[in-house]
């Protein structure tokens, strides 16, 4: 309990610090940074950070519910129209990742299967499971490459989206998209009969920017919204979302605690059962929980040639981000969506983190989630069989055990 309390204090300090310096997503990035720094302290100092996975799961349920509320019939129609593009963009991103993996394997002197599984974007848990089941693959390197990429995405995607270069190039369109999303959210809330929810959605654009500056992050913790407006509707969604998440986890569904609540909330929302928007403090707490958990994942002490592998991991993550940006430009030419929405849709990170960022900058959360969801499912169902087929050619016979199921 003491370790958890100290870790929580460290995470809160990280959120406050990053709020004070005006960082994007301070309650995600701050806890992640300080949790990682705390985990690197010498063991003799008597402090080993601990963060229960149950808190991360609860945060995922909250984020999944919040994303599910953004789905509309218009979004589903647009998803169907963009399905061929989703397939194309996913294939291009994975091919680009494979090219990066081949280059890193050559430069680092590592086996290609190890680097390839460490380079698949958005497939952290799935690739680790496959690596555990494949002889000849270094699980430590796979985990390090995946977590390094994830942490880079979480840190640099918000900074890039808010950078002067990105804003100057696409700021007008992004701003227009953000305004439209806020208005649509307000209209949806009004249709549901929730005046306070409509006001919160309609004013999200202003409060989002205010949250970046100074100590506004602390203000958000106190701005819990109209808690009375959550009940009793939130009780139904809480029970259903949690139940579906637990059930899907038992059948080893990918990202069960995120996708389960998102899918069931979207289904209820589209059927006319409207859920209340979560207060800003709940979303901030969810970001803190996810950020702290991710910050404790990276453990480079088990690596050989730490400096070389770490350098190549960072460089490959940067190249992958650049490739995603190039695909973003292509996507904006194919469909009338804002560059911020396109970039977050293709960013090689997790859907929960990209959903949080999309919500904060008022991008089209539903479109971002759909592209990320499609890639998640493609990685879960299609990539492992393809990798097994490839590894049978690259690795000695018997290295890949066919009886494994992810």
What can you tell me about this protein's structure?
There is one protein chain. The chain has 19 helices and no strands. Helix 3 packs across helix 17. It is 74% helix and 0% strand. The chain is globular. The protein has helices spanning 2-20, 26-39, 53-68, 73-108, 112-119, 124-132, 139-161, 164-191, 195-202, 204-210, 216-222, 233-250, 256-270, 280-295, 306-334, 339-346, 351-361, 365-381, 383-394.
Provide key terms for this protein.
globular; mainly alpha
Distance between the termini: 33 Å
Query: How much of the polypeptide forms β-strand, as a percent range?
Result: under 5%
Major sheet: size, sense and barrel closure? none
Give the proportion of residues in helices: over 70%
Describe this structure in a few short sentences.
The protein is mainly α. 74% of the residues lie in helices and 0% in strands. The protein has 19 helices and no strands.
């Amino acid at each position: 309990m003491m370790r958890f309390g100290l870790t929580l204090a460290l995470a809160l300090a990280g959120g406050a610090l990053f709020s004070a310096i005006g960082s994007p997503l301070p309650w995600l990035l701050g806890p992640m940074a300080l949790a990682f720094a705390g985990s690197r302290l010498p063991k003799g100092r008597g402090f080993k950070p601990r963060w229960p996975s149950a808190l991360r799961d609860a945060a995922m349920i909250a984020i999944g519910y919040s994303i599910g509320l953004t789905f509309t019939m218009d979004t589903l129609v647009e998803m169907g129209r963009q399905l061929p593009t989703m397939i194309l963009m996913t294939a291009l991103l994975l091919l680009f990742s494979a090219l990066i993996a081949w280059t890193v394997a050559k430069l680092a002197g590592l086996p290609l299967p190890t680097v390839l599984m460490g380079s698949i974007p958005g497939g952290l848990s799935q690739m680790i499971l496959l690596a555990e089941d494949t002889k000849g693959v270094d699980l430590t390197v796979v985990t390090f490459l995946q977590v390094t990429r994830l942490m880079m995405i979480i840190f640099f995607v918000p900074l890039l989206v808010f950078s002067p270069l990105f804003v100057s190039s696409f700021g007008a369109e992004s701003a227009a998209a953000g305004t439209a999303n806020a208005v649509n959210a307000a209209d949806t809330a009004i249709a549901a009969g929730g005046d306070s929810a409509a006001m919160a959605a309609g004013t999200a654009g202003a409060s989002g920017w205010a949250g970046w500056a100074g100590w506004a992050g602390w203000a958000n913790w106190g701005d819990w919204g109209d808690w009375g407006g959550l009940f009793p509707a939130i009780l139904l969604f809480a029970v259903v979302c949690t139940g579906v998440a637990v059930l899907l986890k038992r059948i080893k569904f990918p990202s069960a605690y995120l996708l389960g609540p998102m899918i069931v909330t979207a289904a209820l929302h589209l059927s006319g059962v409207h859920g209340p928007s979560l207060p800003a403090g709940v979303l901030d707490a969810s970001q803190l929980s996810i950020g702290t958990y991710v910050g404790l994942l990276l453990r480079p002490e088990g690596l050989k040639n730490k400096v070389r592998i770490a350098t190549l991991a960072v460089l490959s993550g940067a190249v992958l981000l650049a490739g995603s940006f190039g695909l973003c430009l292509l996507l904006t030419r194919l469909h009338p969506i804002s560059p911020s929405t396109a970039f977050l849709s293709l960013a090689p990170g997790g859907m929960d983190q990209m959903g949080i960022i999309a919500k904060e900058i008022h991008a089209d959360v539903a479109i971002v989630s759909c592209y990320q969801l499609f890639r998640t499912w493609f990685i879960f169902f299609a990539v492992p069989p393809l990798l097994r087929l490839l590894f049978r050619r690259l690795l000695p016979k018997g290295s890949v055990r066919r009886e494994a199921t992810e």
